[in-house]
Each structure stands twice: as structure tokens, then as C-alpha cells.
Amino acid sequence: MLGSRVALLCFKSIARCLPVSRSRLKSLRPSRFAISRGFASRTTSQLKKMSMSISTSPSPVAAPELTDQREEVELLPAVNDYYGGVIVEMKAPMDSGAFASSLRSSISIWRKQGIKGVWIKLPINLANLVQPAVEEGFWYHHAEPSYLMLVYWIPDTKHTIPANASHRVGVGGFVMNDKREVLVVQENSGRFHGSGVWKFPTGVVDQGEDIYAAAIREVKEETGIDTEFVEILAFRQSHMSFFEKSDLFFVCMLRPLSSDIQKQESEIEAAQWMPIEEYAAQPFFQKYDMLKYINDVSLAKVERGYAGFSPVCIKSGFSHAQNYLYLNSKDLSQPSRPGNMSESN
């Protein structure tokens, strides 16, 4: 039976190739074609194998997967910080789409490495990368005139990334001469402008500046008087709600090295030496406890040897720069080191 089917199949295949009419082909019979036993046997064997293969295959053979021809995504350059995180400092321009792909791939790798916090520093000329970073879950940490810092927390836990710098540091200089006169100024702007109030020279500590150096600088800038730092007499902390920061203000005692006043800054209306009693008797100072305390502490230093905090130069394990520890050197029986302070100026 199978042999006759093979003959019929062979007949039909050969007929398709013959240059004869369809009517002539219909009259032909497979029996008229001589098919050898060997050919029939081989053909039958092949058909049996094909039939068994088809019947035993549960499903068609799947086509091989296409090889991924995409280029490997470049990871973002990063350095480790001291707290299990990484710092990425972007410098060269980059397409926002390419940046987003690199950022996702980098986060995936960092997650496997157990990295926690991620810091990305974006210069102002790479502001186009802010949006893709925020879309990946980064948030603003702080901004400076030339860059924006973004952060991201990888683990599924509460983050421990420290807040941005939360304090502004100010200084006020209490300077008294041998005549019991204090160095005072009137402001040309600010809340004391036009009030007639005489106050200590004050200002804000510059970035990276030590407290003692800031006090010396502010007195010099506002009055032209050179001074030597003695002690921190007291400090105050207050909250600045608009800026969401705290204000630290240090009352510093300085020893005058000159006496001729030369008003320097345009924000200062006038400067002069004033008897301490006249200074303390100003009506404005009688309204506020803080101002009265500052005056009392300053007098206590002059008259009763009130011990404040003087700077001692120390070595720190966290920085190679000079550091100063402010302490009560009088009760500690350890002198301060003004020589070291002058060396750092």
C-alpha cells in the first residue's frame, strides 16, 4: 500500500516537470513509470522517518532567538565615599537619554554591590541631566552657584543621608582699649539703619574660614582697626524659618593693636570708640535680655576674669588642614596658641 502511494507521489512530482498538456497527464497512470525497488524502498524509509518525527514532536521547533546586537551601556564614573555610598561628578556634556540609560545600569550594579547612597554633582552647564535623574528617583540635596547636588538612596530602608548645611555662622567683635572704651559702629543698612544704635562690629563667617579669623577680619573691614583674638565669650543659636536654617552667632573678645579708626565698608555709616557705660546705657539694649547678657559677659571678662573659650591648634584625623579646638584654657591650665593662629592667616 505504501509503495503505491510512493509511486503516486513520484508520478505527480515528475509530471509537474514534464512539458506535456494536462489532458495528456490525466491519461497517464503511475504504473506506466518504471520505479526501481531500491528507489521505492529508500523513499518509503524516508517517509516513515518523517512520519514518526512529526507524530512525536509536541510542538513546532522554536526559531532560535535573535542575538542582541545592542551596544553595552557605559556605566557612570564613580568613587566610593566613607559611608558605603558613591559620588558621581559629571563633567563632560552628555545626552539626557544616554545618561538615563547609564544611570539605570549603574544603579543596578551598585545595588548588587551593596552601595547605599548615591551623590551626583551636576555642573550648571549640565542642567539637562536634572530631569532624567529626578525621574529615576533622585532628589535635590543642595545647590551652589556653579553646581547642583542630587542624591538617591538604594536600599529599601529609611535613608541616612545627612541634610544640607543647616547653620549660618556669624561673629561679633567686642574690642575694648585701655580707657574702657569699646569699638562700636552704626550701620548704613539693615534693621539698625537710622535707629541711632551703636553696636559691635559683626559679620558672617566665610566658607572655610575659622571663627577667630572671621572676627579679626570683620573688625578690620568695618573700622580699620587691627586686633588680636582673645576668646569666645558666648554664643547664641536662633532659628531662621525662611531659610530653614539655624543661626549661630559668636561673641568674641579681641585686643586692639591700633587705635586710629578708618571706616572701610560702605555698609557702615560711622565708627568710634565709646565708653562702656555709655554703650550699655543705650535704651535699645535695655529691651532685650540677650544684649544685656552680652554686655554683662564682656564686662565680667574685663573686671572679674570671666573665662571664655580660646582656640588651640590641633591635628585632626579627618583633615590635613589646621583645626582649632575652642576651650577654657584658663581652667585647663593650658595656654592658647596665638602664634599658630597667626601662621594660618
UniProtKB/TrEMBL annotation:
One of its GO terms (molecular function) is metal ion binding. The keyword RNA-binding does not apply. It comes from Phoenix dactylifera. Keywords: Hydrolase, Metal-binding. InterPro entries: Nudix_hydrolase, NUDIX_hydrolase-like_dom_sf, Nudix_hydrolase6-like, NUDIX_hydrolase_CS, NUDIX_hydrolase_dom, Pre-Nudix. This is Nudix hydrolase 2-like. The keyword Hydrolase applies. Belongs to the Nudix hydrolase family. Residues 166-298 form the Nudix hydrolase domain. Transmembrane segments: none annotated.
